[in-house]
């Protein structure tokens, strides 16, 4: 594999793509450590090291993950790629229910361009809302659970300064979105996925260092071995797919014969990807938001119940609810992104059929049956992987710095595999052996 990377850098155009991608990722990481105007990020870092204010649950922890730690430093790129992910999810959901968007999706490249433009506008709108809420929480001290004095990191709270911070964070989101599109067009791999991958692995060395300092040597070695086994299992599941054979009948078009070829429909075990985990995490933050709106009333039984069972990630009720939501959202997202009836109609239109299955409605029912059987183990797998940090926190207290689990491991493995495949395809086009000999 190392030799394949050397050959990749020896190829001029592929080398330029790789260097351009690394250049954009470097600028992206620089923006994650530059504080917004009026913010003392050094004071935040010192206080966080002392009190470890980051909790292991909640949507703001998820936002901090996708910003590479920039959120809890209130940096220029504090929002990270999360507004774009949320906007993309919303647009995908609206495509199913809004006829106009569904028609644009079927128009091909021109329609997809308009949908992308709508996604950009929605991303900026969400960035304004999220940056405003983050600034409001930072101003009141709720972002760090009241453990860091507001005056230490935000000494000036006049309206102009607050508006400047919001505008800076929103502009940072727009720049991140532009970076992702540049990598997709001129670099290697999917730009947005690589930006997420970069933010996740940015905290990996510090998490490993902290765990090495806090745990005994044999415990640290056991965690590393368990992490390697887990990564192997995740790679196996992420690569697993059911290939549905498709045969195309021969047909005459003019004087030429078309068709007669065989192909397949690849249905992955984890067809939904990381989206169900994001949905479930965001939904479980609503009870915490409700408690914040209720205030610290000691006589409120609803707030007491939420504080007891839905604030801490080690609560069995919280973990069970999180698991059920992930499984449910996995089925929901697969249902709206893969339409068996549409696939069956397209196959029938071009003379394709599954051997042993009649075209049309029987094909759609067969695809739906296979997809349901695949999504069941895939959703259970997602739920178990997402619960790993909470289980580690409850068992050993190492959950806050546990690097081998949850959303991070899914992103690292998934994006890493996809990027390696794209580099491999570039090498194979030039008659190289690639990564696998």
From TrEMBL:
Protein name, as recorded: Protein translocase subunit SecY
Record-stated family: Belongs to the SecY/SEC61-alpha family.
Membrane topology: Multi-pass membrane protein
Any single biological process term in GO: protein targeting
Gene name for this UniProt entry: secY
Coiled coil: none
Originating organism: Streptomonospora litoralis
Keyword entries, A-Z: Cell membrane, Membrane, Protein transport, Translocation, Transmembrane, Transmembrane helix, Transport
Subcellular location: Cell membrane; Membrane
GO CC terms of this entry: plasma membrane
Quaternary structure and interacting proteins, as annotated: Component of the Sec protein translocase complex. Heterotrimer consisting of SecY, SecE and SecG subunits. The heterotrimers can form oligomers, although 1 heterotrimer is thought to be able to translocate proteins. Interacts with the ribosome. Interacts with SecDF, and other proteins may be involved. Interacts with SecA.
């Amino acid at each position: 594999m190392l030799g394949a990377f050397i050959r990749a850098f020896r190829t001029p155009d592929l080398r330029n793509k790789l260097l351009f991608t690394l250049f954009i990722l470097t600028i992206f990481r620089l923006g994650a450590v530059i504080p917004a105007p009026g913010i003392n990020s050094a004071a935040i870092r010192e206080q966080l090291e002392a009190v470890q204010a980051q909790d292991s649950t909640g949507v703001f922890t998820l936002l901090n993950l996708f910003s590479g730690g920039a959120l809890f430093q209130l940096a220029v790129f504090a929002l990270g790629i999360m507004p774009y992910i949320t906007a993309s999810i919303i647009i995908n959901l609206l495509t199913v229910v809004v006829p106009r968007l569904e028609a644009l999706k079927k128009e091909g490249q021109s329609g997809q361009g308009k949908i992308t433009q709508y996604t950009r506008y929605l991303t900026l709108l969400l960035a304004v809302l999220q940056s405003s809420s983050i600034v409001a929480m930072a101003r009141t001290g709720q972002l760090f659970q009241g453990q860091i004095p507001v005056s230490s990191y935000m000494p000036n709270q006049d309206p102009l300064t607050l508006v400047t911070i919001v505008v800076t964070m929103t502009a940072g989101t727009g720049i991140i979105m532009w970076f992702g599109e540049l990598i997709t067009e001129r670099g290697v791999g999917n730009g947005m996925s690589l930006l997420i991958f970069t933010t996740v692995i940015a905290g990996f060395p510090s998490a490993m260092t902290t765990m090495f300092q806090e745990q005994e040597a044999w415990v640290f070695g056991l965690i590393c071995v368990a992490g390697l086994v887990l990564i192997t299992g995740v790679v196996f599941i992420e690569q697993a797919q059911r290939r549905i054979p498709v045969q195309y009948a021969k047909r005459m078009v003019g004087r030429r014969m078309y068709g007669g070829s065989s192909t397949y429909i690849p249905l992955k075990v984890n067809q939904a990807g990381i989206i169900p985990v994001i949905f479930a995490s965001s939904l479980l933050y609503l009870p915490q938001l409700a408690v914040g709106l209720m205030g610290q009333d000691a006589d409120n039984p609803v707030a007491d119940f939420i504080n007891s069972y839905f604030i801490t990630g080690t609560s069995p009720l919280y973990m069970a609810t999180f698991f059920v939501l992930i499984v449910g959202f996995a089925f929901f997202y697969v249902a709206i992104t893969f339409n068996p009836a549409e696939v069956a109609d397209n196959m029938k239109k071009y003379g394709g059929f599954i051997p042993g299955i009649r075209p049309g409605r029987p094909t759609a029912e067969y695809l739906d049956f296979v997809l349901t059987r695949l999504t069941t183990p895939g959703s259970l797998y997602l739920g178990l992987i997402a619960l790993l940090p909470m289980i580690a926190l409850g068992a050993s207290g190492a959950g806050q710095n546990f690097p081998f689990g949850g959303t991070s491991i899914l992103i690292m493995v998934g994006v890493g595999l996809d990027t390696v495949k794209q580099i491999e395809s570039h090498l194979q086009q030039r008659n190289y052996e690639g990564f696998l000999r």
